[in-house]
Design brief:
The structure holds 2 protein chains of 2 kinds. By secondary structure, chain A is mainly alpha-helical. Chain A is built from 15 helices and 4 strands. Chain A has helices spanning 2-15, 17-42, 59-68, 80-89, 113-134, 139-148, 164-197, 200-205, 210-242, 250-279, 285-309, 317-322, 329-339, 344-372, 382-387; strands at 47-51, 73-77, 94-96, 105-106. The chains are: A mainly alpha, B alpha/beta. Chain B: This is ABC transporter ATP-binding protein.
Chain lengths: 389, 305
């Protein structure tokens, strides 16, 4: 019976236009973000530097210096006339004309800051090499010993464990889990009230127990929600990996998705039961918003805390504490997991908390629902729905 | 003994309000039982308890001698007073879903839906959402929802309300037909002429109790009998002196008389003939409507009249 009810919910939901649009739009947004990240990230990264025969001796020095100070450039050997024409066309960012100090550089309008530093260092090297030679030394030896000079850094506070990749994943996880809990939870609430408004609930309840109807609805909409979350998350990660916007090991990507799905299921189970219970108190769609608001606030508070504190402060003890409480765990724990800042015991505690809370919510919501779902008309008070057995 | 649906001493209260107070009646297999009573008498509550949609505070509901459990309840065809179907679900799909909830296989459900949509003349709308149907057609689909799973028992709350005369005939035909195939049919209605015409037995509910139940004839026999005498030339007060006779009313030469037990009606006839010609001399039973009014308007204990 429950499967029959769940099956109807799945069919109805999959055919709903609002649901399809939400899913497609989410996928498009994620893919779009990945594409934008690629366009923005890979556009101006390489400096194209032309080197005339007169400056050819500098080629090795320019390349090694650029590598040392992390400026990406490509060198091209060209004759001066061609080089000038290419700078004019924008094919080259700069053209080295002379190989001795002062190094003459031709650019279209101005010189890139990174490239400026590289050439400054190269020019200084050239002068230094000349002086060393004049003093009777070996420039190569000097260069080798300079290269061994280094700075040892001792941080007093250990660096943050998260890199920017994980931060992006964390934020996306946060938005995705919040949106999916909210949308699917509301779908449950609206479905419950639709049955009350249309009075079809009385016919259905002549064949099944109230809790069966409620659980069937929660399961059906949950199955669809699960597919939705998985599709969005997979396509997001796939797009990110394909465009190099996310640079993750396949295992890290999948563990993020796996945790997202586990927490979606737990969060959905808890929140949708709460939504179903409170929604059964009212008989008209207009009243749904008022009655689900308290439940929704819990979701929103968790989300807002997560999105506002975690990106700048992933190690926040306050958020860590909240993420152990079942009410906030679904919105906070998956984000912390994506950021990679969760000790195993915390993950275990929050999971255990959910596993205890969900059966309690099932019992509580069933009781409210059974008592309230046939009372149409005015809003039923929670206390009355709880007491009437 | 024929199988019967027994409602035995069922009570239900909502807080301070008593909805049912030990109501007892039975509906036999193959009969149509009409439940009448004013609004708030407890008809809907009684039906909801039979369906298990509500739990009774006391009493039992039995079918064929056994307490009605979820499995048997699934074989009841039910039409609630508040009509309800999923507004945005296709007619045929919805009926298949409902019959499967009643335990039918998918194939049997589809076949049965086809039959009933045809029979109730809504087959053309099978792929339309319910919300797009006219109210009358929605009613037909609602009836189909009660019948499509081939119920063993029919419980219909106000099945005739909001139906046009053609649909009333269709509905009556269907109910007779189901009863004819051995299904106990129980329905409530305010349309007493319809109840009188259709029902094998009638129960009158008042304040959560069954105050009268039986065939229409039995109920009418229990009501006050009157003698109608039409004697156009009779002067007013012609019957006043007869022993055991009370004049109830007189109009257009027709006099309605009420006789105590043992009063001699032949003496009344003789007195009438003495005034001139007598065109009508008949005993008259009250109609169900009169009876209903009589029973329902009588004050009960603890209630202001």
């Amino acid at each position: 019976m429950i499967w029959l009810i769940a099956g109807r919910e799945i069919g109805t939901r999959l055919r709903s236009k609002a649901f399809r649009v939400a899913t497609v739009v989410s996928v498009l947004i994620l893919v779009g973000l990945a594409l934008i990240a690629k366009l923005v990230g890979s556009g101006p990264s390489y400096q194209e530097v032309g080197i005339t025969p007169a400056a050819a001796a500098l080629t090795g020095s320019v390349t090694s210096t650029a590598t040392a100070i992390k400026v990406d450039l490509h060198t091209h050997a060209v004759d001066e006339a061609t080089g000038r024409a290419q700078v004019e066309d924008g094919k080259l960012d700069a053209l080295l004309v002379t190989g001795t100090s002062p190094i003459q550089v031709v650019v279209k309008t101005d010189l890139d800051d990174g490239l400026q530093s590289v050439l400054q260092l190269v020019a200084q090297r050239t002068v230094l090499d000349q002086q060393v030679t004049e003093l009777g030394g070996d420039p190569a030896k000097v260069a080798a010993s300079i290269a061994t000079a280094a700075v040892t850094v001792t941080p007093l506070t250990p660096p943050k464990n998260s890199n920017s990749q994980q931060l992006i994943l964390g934020i996306l996880t946060s938005v995705l889990i919040y949106m999916s809990l909210l949308l699917n939870g509301q779908a449950v609430a609206q479905g419950v009230v639709e049955e009350k408004t249309s009075r079809v609930v009385e016919i259905i309840l002549a064949t099944v127990r109230p809790w069966q109807l409620m659980v069937g609805k929660v399961l059906g909409l949950g199955a669809v929600g699960l597919i939705q979350v998985a599709v969005i998350a997979l396509s997001g990660v796939a797009a990110g990996v394909a465009t190099d916007a996310i640079d993750l090991h396949i295992t890290a990507a999948f563990s993020t998705i796996a945790w997202l799905i586990v927490w979606f299921l737990l969060g959905y189970a808890a929140y949708s039961l709460a939504f179903a219970g409170v929604a059964s108190l009212v008989s008209r769609q207009e009243e749904v918003a008022a009655v689900v608001t308290p439940v929704m606030m819990l979701l929103i508070v968790g989300y807002v805390i997560g999105i506002s504190i975690l990106p700048s402060n992933p190690d926040s003890g306050f958020v860590a504490l909240l993420s152990l409480i079942p009410v906030f765990a679904p919105t906070l724990m998956p984000v912390r997991l994506a950021l990679g800042v969760v000790p195993a015991w915390q993950a275990a505690v929050s999971l255990a908390g959910m596993i205890v809370v969900i059966p309690l919510l099932l019992w509580f919501a069933s009781r409210i629902y059974s008592n309230a779902v046939l009372r149409s008309g005015a809003r039923v008070r929670l206390r009355d729905a709880w007491r009437a057995a | 003994m024929t199988r019967q649906l027994e409602i035995d001493g069922v009570s239900k209260r909502y807080g301070e309000i008593v909805a049912l107070e030990g109501i007892t009646f039975e509906v036999r297999a193959g009969e149509i039982f009409g439940l009448v009573g004013s609004n708030g008498a407890g008809k809907t509550t009684a039906m909801r308890i039979v369906l298990g949609v509500l739990a009774a505070d006391a009493g039992a509901v039995r079918w064929d001698g056994r307490a009605l459990g979820p499995d048997t309840r699934r074989k009841i065809g039910y039409m609630p007073e508040e009509r309800g179907l999923y507004p945005r679900m296709k007619v045929a799909e919805q009926l298949v879903y409902l019959s499967r909830l009643h335990g039918m296989s998918a194939a049997a459900a589809r076949a049965s839906v086809d039959v009933w949509l045809e029979r109730l003349a809504v087959a053309g709308r099978r792929d339309d959402d319910v919300i797009k149907l006219s109210l009358g057609n929605q009613q037909r689909v609602q009836l189909a929802a009660a019948l499509v799973h081939d119920p063993e028992i029919l419980v219909l709350d106000e099945p005739f309300s909001g139906l046009d005369p053609v649909a009333v005939d269709v509905m009556s035909g269907v109910l007779r037909n189901k009863a004819g195939s051995g299904v106990p049919v129980m329905f409530s209605s305010h349309q007493l002429d319809l109840v009188e015409r259709l029902c094998d037995r009638v129960g009158i509910v008042r304040q959560g109790r069954m105050v009268a139940a039986g065939t229409v004839d039995e109920l009418r026999a229990g009501g006050p009998e009157e003698l109608i005498v039409t004697a156009p030339d009779a002067p007013p007060g012609w019957a006043a002196g007869l022993p055991g006779v009370t004049v109830v009313g007189q109009s257009n030469g027709s006099t309605r008389l009420s006789l105590v037990d043992g009063a001699d009606d032949q003496a009344v006839l003789r007195a009438a003939l003495a005034t001139g010609p007598v065109h009508e001399f008949a005993r008259s039973r009250p109609s169900l409507t009169d009876l209903f009014r009589h029973i329902v308007s009588a004050p009960a204990e603890g209630e202001p009249a």
